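tool=predict chain=A
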Amino acid sequence: MLAPGSSPEQRGRLALQWRQVSWITCWVALYAVEALPTCPFSCKCDSRSLEVDCSGLGLTTVPPDVPAATRTLLLLNNKLSALPSWAFANLSSLQRLDLSNNFLDQLPHSIFGDLTNLTELQLRNNSIRTLDRDLLRHASLLRHLDLSINGLAQLPPGLFDGLLALRSLSLRSNRLQNLDRLTFEPLANLQLLQVGDNPWECDCNLREFKHWMEWFSYRGGRLDQLACTLPKELRGKDMRMVPMEMFNYCSQLEDENSSAGLDIPGPPCTKASPEPAKPKPGAEPEPEPSTACPQKQRHRPASVRRAMGTVIIAGVVCGIVCIMMVVAAAYGCIYASLMAKYHRELKKRQPLMGDPEGEHEDQKQISSVA
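tool=predict ok
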């Protein structure tokens, strides 16, 4: 307040000071408002753990006002079907992201580009069919990745390149039929791999991944059951329990393919043989090269059922042969004993039937009596 007798200079000086204080107050208020984290509408925020929980709200888009300092963002059990590439652009401090139980079918290759501190990513129970190989390029600190219950039919090579910190990976309940060993070799610190409930085809395409699984189990990694769906002979059997001898035909196919590539290309074979040219009169017909398609032998994988049948039949035949040998030996022993007994009886009867001296003595006795 100014005194009644104050001069105009004092009034101007006080007005200027009041204006400066007002500006400072406004700047402080604006800074305080920006410093305080705002919570998105209907979401639950924890200022201590820096967690934003927007799960189960029926959201179709990611809230745009998520605080930049958020470390945990929960968006599970919503109706998210498509996400723009800038959905998480300002969340460089984010460490845990949960997008489970949504309707996501495709993810932009740069959607996680700013999440350089991400350690856990949950994408469980969505409709994701394909993944871009650069999707996780900037998530070098990722430790836990869940891609289970989706529609993945294959994994692009290079998807896990740079994920040296990854500890657990879940690929359960997808449409995977085979996997490439080179895709998993960068995961040097992986401890848990879940690949069950997939329609695995245990053929030559899965042979190299079987080698990697054996190495992974040998170094202490945990792996759930990888049950074969095809071929029928191996249906329901764990891939790790299938002996490597079942894949010997794969090497034969590779050798034949490599040797076939060195052959000199000839005329294309056709199913219909061309009509032979009419020979000129007085000239011998020349043999024409055959253009018929050669019959290629079709290699089939070894059948477990046939192998077991062969073993059973061989065992039965060996058993029958052994029984026949025992019967023959018993018959020989019985025959030998009977013949020995017969010869003993025959020797006992010889003095009575064929001895001439005995007959001469009998005649002497008869003549003396006469």
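The longest strand covers residues 44-46. The chain has a mean pLDDT of 79.
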